[in-house]
Write a structure and sequence with these properties.
This protein folds into two domains: 71 residues, Helix Hairpins (Orthogonal Bundle); 66 residues, Roll (Chitinase A, domain 3). The chain contains three helices and seven strands; from the N terminus they run βααββββαββ. A five-stranded mixed β-sheet has the order 5-4-3-7-6. A two-stranded parallel ribbon has the order 1-2. The two termini are 24 Å apart.
């Protein structure tokens, strides 16, 4: 993937690793927000304006707040999609972006499970972990049975990879 030129403040956003399903979901959300969402909020703002004095018009202020939140989400999705890389973790035997990894901390019997990738990959039953976080980076390319170390605020921690899936 060719990275675009740096932004006006000199930063290039990180690549967002997305599954095809997450990419498709974000694309659909973007389309809905930029078409139906913008039309809806414009109607609500117009209806609130017609109620009179804008200084003390709660409906108007609520609609404008909602518009601001929606526009922020649109910009977020736009940036994610622009800098995304679609990954396919099917059939992998090592931890890669887009896969589900289960691990346990050294000395702990509890198994934790995360999907490795953008926060947009989170599912109802599984949280996401960035592949660039300290633990996410340490897990990358590990296989079942590997013990990896990473630096945490409290010191060096070790985890054992117990399962890798989709």
């Amino acid at each position: 993937m060719v990275r675009p030129p740096t932004t006006t403040i000199g930063l290039v956003p990180d690549v967002q690793y997305l599954s095809q399903a997450a990419f498709d979901r974000l694309t659909a959300e973007f389309e809905e927000l930029t078409t139906i969402g913008r039309t809806d909020i414009a109607r609500k703002i117009q209806a609130a304006r017609e109620l009179g004095d804008l200084k003390e018009n709660g409906d108007y202020h609520a609609a404008k707040d909602h518009q601001g939140q929606m526009e922020a989400r649109i910009r977020t999705i736009e940036a994610i999609l622009e800098f995304s890389e679609i990954v396919d973790s099917a059939g992998t035997d090592s931890v890669q972006a887009g896969c589900v990894v289960s691990f346990r901390y050294e000395g702990d019997a509890e198994i934790e499970t995360f999907v490795i990738g953008s926060i947009e990959e989170k599912r109802a039953d599984i949280e996401s972990m960035s592949p660039t976080s300290p633990l996410g980076a340490a897990l990358m390319d590990a296989t079942v049975g590997d013990i990896v170390e990473f630096e945490a605020p409290g010191g060096l921690l070790k985890v054992e990879v117990v399962a890798i899936g989709e």
